[in-house]
Amino acid sequence: MKSISLLGAALLDWFEAVGRAGIFLAQSIFRVPVRFNEAVRLLVQQLYSVGVLSLVIVVVSGAFIGMVLALQGYSILAKFGSEEAVGQLLALSLLRELAPVVTALLFAGRAGSSLTAEIGLMKATEQLSSFEMMGVDPLRRVIAPRFIAGVICLPLLSLIFSATGIMGGYVVSVNWLGVHDGAFWSQMQQSVYFDTDIINGFIKALCFSVAVTWIAVYQGYECVPTSEGIGKATTRTVVLGSLAILALDFVLTAAMFGDF
Amino acid sequence: MRSKRTELFVGCFIVLGVLAFVYLAVQVSGLAFSAKKDSYQIVARFDDIGGLTNRAKVTIAGVTVGSVESIVLDKELYMGLVTMNIDADVDNIPLDSSIAILTSGLLGEKYLGLSIGADDEMLGNGDEIYDTQSALVLETLISQFLFKSDSED
Amino acid sequence: MAVTEAYIKVQNVRFSRGGRMIYDDVSLTIPKGKITAVMGPSGTGKTTLLRLIAAQLTPDSGTILVDGQNVHALSRSALYKVRKKMGMLFQSGALFSDMSVAENIAFPMEEHTKLTRDEIATIVSSKLHSVGLRGAASLMPSELSGGMARRVALARAIALDPELVMYDEPFTGQDPISKGVLVKLIRQLNDDANITSVLVSHDVEESLSIADHVCILSGGTVIAEGSAAEIQASSDPQVVQFLKGEPDGPVPFHYPEDKHSEEAVI
């Protein structure tokens, strides 16, 4: 009996946490806006620290993943004499799965953790209380620009990841392994559809970006304001964020590509 | 100055993202930005569509002239009813042409191949091709071969 | 001591957090235009009192009237309006780490007034001048020493010319010179601008030296309230122990070993 009631209590706690996180998100986005110029300035600042600073890791991993895919794909496809299909393999696996998922995982580690740590530190040093004392809503001022910037950045990063991955794969398969240039592109273009592949991949990245950024800012805002608490919250952001990405990926893939 | 540089970087980042999108759309998916081509629809019924999918290409002499729009079951005849869009500028397909489900390569995708007939009348929107050849299904082939060799004994 | 008008009235406030009772029926008044020191041992929730007054926390029961308004019954926008009349100096300074010193002080004015950039710059430099840090305007908070950061935070707290300034442990972790500077600044601000000041501290000496009115909190209740002289003359054993810093007395040296400590372990 006790275990059942414990389970029930845990479930209720969980629902409560989800509810609190939902209210938190709604409040930070829909409350009284800060002045427009200020809002733009804050957003640009966050786009820089969330997006631009994540660019290097995304471009480098994209290029390498594309190159490795081309190598691996080539060695298997060559057995069937259809090494031209390496372009198709590369484009489909990147656009549909690897770009959104890997970019989101990198994003959770690079940008998500720093968002949590930054907000947590602002809480620990009473900067959030300080905003409140000055009659400025910290949700609107601190959380909203970070959340919006995160949601904008991840899909863009995912597109950049796909593009660099395909370029990297192109270099390896055409310039290095000697796949025919025209065949590489035409096979790719025949099998990649703009709406099912590119748009669906983009939608995936958008869903991941909402989930990861939401988790990151919420963990930062709700963390225990001590050095240990911030550390734990940062870890939770990466762990919960990654799990959310993988779980969402399964659901979205089933919904988008399940009937193929 | 600090914020000017930030703005510059953010601008570059967003432009880069948009460029990546355009690159993917044009170079990778081969999306053409010209207005959607005019097309007319024709239908064909097959005994077995055997793995043909939506948007499979329709070819004449190997040249793509259209794509499959939809595949449904004709409930009265128990046949696969395939609707396809043919580019409007290919308006001289004779009425008695035949159509077959073909496979590109040994393991490749299924596509439709039109063989031109000799009729003077041409196919128009909503017309049907009656001369159809279903997909080759490996199991059927094998059983036909076995049946034949049995009867010869 | 003449009875002055009360600016803040705390009436029968009870407050508990995490199942632990922090305030059990606290009532005190903070007179207008005076410096009130709220003292007490660590862990008696002195900072909590400031947060209750600012309505960042809500009491379980009881009311807090600030300038005649019950701050916990106000709507969000009305509360934000009341908060503009309050300045708070946080224990850590709480300067915004992504802004320079001048931007930090300008922030509340940019947010709440329609002053032009030049007007704000003039006020910023006069506020910085009043805390003696005009030369530090372009520094970032990370480049300041602890004492300087607290003075900048003080300049920011008074940027909107508030009626009430709350100081959360202003002397903690400061060297004697910084303490002296802060004592002087607090006194000066209070007298010049007729600000009501609330000072939360456990630094007995500094607090008593500037406070007009003193409250001592212990064990969730007010154990003494009165002028600095009255408090120093008090014979209450709890007050005496706190003021003299005796290790054992009504507040035992040993933490009680009851089931509370077991809960704490879990």
Automatic annotation (TrEMBL), chain A:
It is found in: Cell inner membrane. Keywords: Cell inner membrane, Cell membrane, Membrane, Transmembrane, Transmembrane helix, Transport. The chain crosses the membrane at residues 45-71, 147-178, 198-217, 238-257. InterPro entries: ABC_MlaE_roteobac, MlaE_Permease, Permease_MalE. It is a multi-pass membrane protein. Pfam families: MlaE (PF02405). The complex is composed of two ATP-binding proteins (MlaF), two transmembrane proteins (MlaE), two cytoplasmic solute-binding proteins (MlaB) and six periplasmic solute-binding proteins (MlaD). This is Intermembrane phospholipid transport system permease protein MlaE.
From TrEMBL, chain B:
It comes from the Bacteria. It holds the Pfam family MlaD. Residues 39-115 form the Mce/MlaD domain. PANTHER family: INTERMEMBRANE PHOSPHOLIPID TRANSPORT SYSTEM BINDING PROTEIN MLAD, INTERMEMBRANE PHOSPHOLIPID TRANSPORT SYSTEM BINDING PROTEIN MLAD-RELATED. NCBIfam families: OM_asym_MlaD (TIGR04430). This is Outer membrane lipid asymmetry maintenance protein MlaD. It comes from Marinomonas vulgaris. The gene is mlaD.
